[in-house]
Specification:
Elements lengths: L1 H22 L3 E7 L11 H13 L4 E5 L10 H4 L2 H10 L3 E3 L9 H10 L4 E2 L3 E2 L14 E5 L2 E7 L5 H4 L6 E2 L2 H14 L4 E6 L7 H5 L5 E6 L5 E5 L2 E7 L4 E8 L11 E5 L7 H18 L2 E5 L3 E2 L2 H4 L5 H14 L3 E5 L8 E2 L3 E4 H7 L6 E7 H13 L9 E4 L1 E5 L9 E6 L2 E2 L5 E7 H4 L6 H4 L2 E2 L8 H12 L1 E2 L7 E3 L3
Parallel strand pairs: 1-2, 2-3, 3-4, 7-9, 9-10, 10-12, 15-27, 17-25, 22-28
Antiparallel strand pairs: 1-13, 5-8, 6-7, 11-12, 13-14, 15-19, 16-18, 17-21, 20-25, 20-26, 22-23, 23-24
Helix pairs in contact: 2-9, 11-16
Length: 493
């Protein structure tokens, strides 16, 4: 009799458990963050860890999905190519990380190495390596996790801006929406209950993925996007301003009975999250490793410097002049040109500031190398037009120059903004040949400088990085006094 009662009780418990599972589908809280490359920036990874800890303390099952754009640029990344960021993210145990534009800052092979160091998949679905006719080695087009008897899957694509922004030497970026459509359909066909898609740009065509039921949560991030959450179909489309430290927190129902499988979805400023002490200690350990080397003085600037984005991407900059002069002096060329997007310190230096190695590294974090080209005056003019084409959007292509003066009107149509160029006090001649000091990135056509890709490389034994040439220029002089001296003249309409 006792055995019968016991068996009946077990059977009743199983029935109740099954009924509960049928009426209450499993849920998971998905946290998305991206664009956190610098360990010295706050809010950052310590606040991400704090947010995860807070949500888990509320009894929620939490998954972290990282949108990428974090292996560069930073001072530390210029030394280890982003390896420290992978080590830190390993401790946060994300479901996956997207390979966005900045993950290619040090080239495809370095990204492959970082993928082998990661305890999580690095995801991209629109990349083709001609050597293998497949994805880049070490990367995958999807990631998934099993929650109970349900599957949550994620995929990501990189913006086509990768072609100009970082000029990968080998791999090709394909259409992001079409690649995501193919991958999402395959995920659905394989039984994924929830599909999350990440984009590195905002495109109206992306919403079709939600409307057709291929994707449940779509997150698109770019520098000039308006932040918001838009319900679409049974899911939601989140647009993020990539430069803002914002977390997406979505409560995901892994059952299909809910009207919206990814609701509610919130945007939470990371600055409102608590700081996790363990992650903060890990960040501090990396900072201390760099501190002694980066504190070494290089020289003094007698004049004030402003490297804020709005200063270096809209006109002549004293710091931009310093870098361009150093570049031209180092390689002994007629003129020099660099893109303002390579200047990343985003700070102000009062007059008589001591410039340290750390200052130079933080201002010029990319490992761009100095090159010398020979080009015609018409090619140089075309390069300058490219640099001024995105003036309204403060793009990184905006030029900083040395050895020439340029009068320009940014209200003119694109391609007609250069009014006059003078070199050595003489008007630029389209058929004359000039030597140009620039960066290997621009010489390959990066940031739209295709005119430089057609120039003739001049043989040189130099193989120096840009920041090393600037450090040498300042160090040999001891004191520098860069100023705005009228080499880039904005003509008022």
């Amino acid at each position: 009799m006792r055995h019968l009662i016991k068996n009946l009780a077990l059977a009743a418990a199983l029935v109740l458990a099954c009924a509960a599972q049928a009426t209450t589908p499993p849920t998971v809280t998905l946290v998305y963050v991206s664009n956190l490359p610098d360990i010295d920036t706050s809010p950052g990874l310590a606040e991400v860890a704090g947010l995860l800890q807070t949500l888990r303390s509320e009894g929620k099952e939490v998954l972290l999905l990282h949108g990428g754009d974090s292996l560069a640029p930073s001072t530390l990344a210029s030394f280890d190519r982003g390896a420290h960021m992978i080590a830190l993210l390993n401790e946060l145990d994300p479901l996956a990380m997207a390979a966005a534009k900045r993950e290619f800052a040090f080239g495809e092979d370095q990204l492959t190495l970082r993928s082998y160091e990661a305890a999580f998949p690095i995801v991209i679905n629109n990349l083709l390596d001609p050597l293998t006719s497949e994805n880049l080695a070490g990367l995958t087009d999807r990631a998934e996790v099993q929650v109970g008897d349900r599957r949550l899957c994620a995929t990501a694509s990189v913006s086509l801006e990768l072609r100009e922004a970082y000029m990968p030497r080998r791999v090709q970026a394909l259409d992001p929406v079409e690649a995501t459509r193919r991958t999402a359909k395959d995920l659905r066909d394989s039984g994924c209950d929830i599909v999350v898609a990440l984009f590195g740009s905002v495109d109206p065509d992306q919403e079709s993925l939600l409307e057709r039921g291929l994707v449940d949560l779509l997150i698109s991030a770019e520098s000039h996007a308006d932040q918001g959450v838009k319900p679409s179909g049974e899911g939601a489309w989140v647009t993020l301003k990539a430069t803002e430290a914002t977390a997406v927190v979505a409560e995901i129902s892994l059952g299909k009975s809910a009207p919206c499988a990814v609701c509610p979805t919130q945007l939470i400023p990371l600055g409102t999250a608590p700081t996790d002490a363990t992650m903060l200690a890990r960040l501090d350990s990396y900072r201390k490793k760099l501190a002694e080397i980066l504190a070494m003085p290089v020289g003094v600037t007698d004049t004030a410097l402003d490297t804020r984005r709005s200063a270096v991407r809209t006109g002549e900059s004293a710091f931009g002049n310093l870098v361009a002069d150093a570049l031209r002096d180092f390689i002994d060329a007629d003129v020099a040109l660099l893109n303002s997007g390579g200047i990343r310190g985003n700070r102000q230096y009062p007059a008589n500031s001591v410039l340290t190695r750390g200052d130079i590294q933080s201002e010029l974090p990319f490992r761009n190398r100095v090159v010398r080209l020979e080009l015609t005056g018409s090619q140089l003019r075309a390069a300058l037009e490219n640099g001024l084409a995105g003036y309204e959007d403060q793009t990184g292509a905006f030029p900083q120059i040395s050895g020439m003066t340029v009068r320009f009107n940014p209200t003119n149509p694109v391609g007609q903004r250069v009014l006059e160029v003078r070199i050595g006090g003489r008007p630029l001649r389209d058929d004359q040949r000039y030597s140009l000091a620039t960066l290997d990135f621009l010489a390959r056509g990066g940031d739209g400088y295709q005119a430089l890709a057609g120039a003739t490389p001049l043989r040189s034994s130099l193989n120096a990085l840009l920041w090393e040439s600037v450090r040498s220029y300042i160090g040999t002089r001891g004191r520098v006094a860069p100023r705005i001296d009228g080499r880039l003249i904005h003509v008022q309409p």
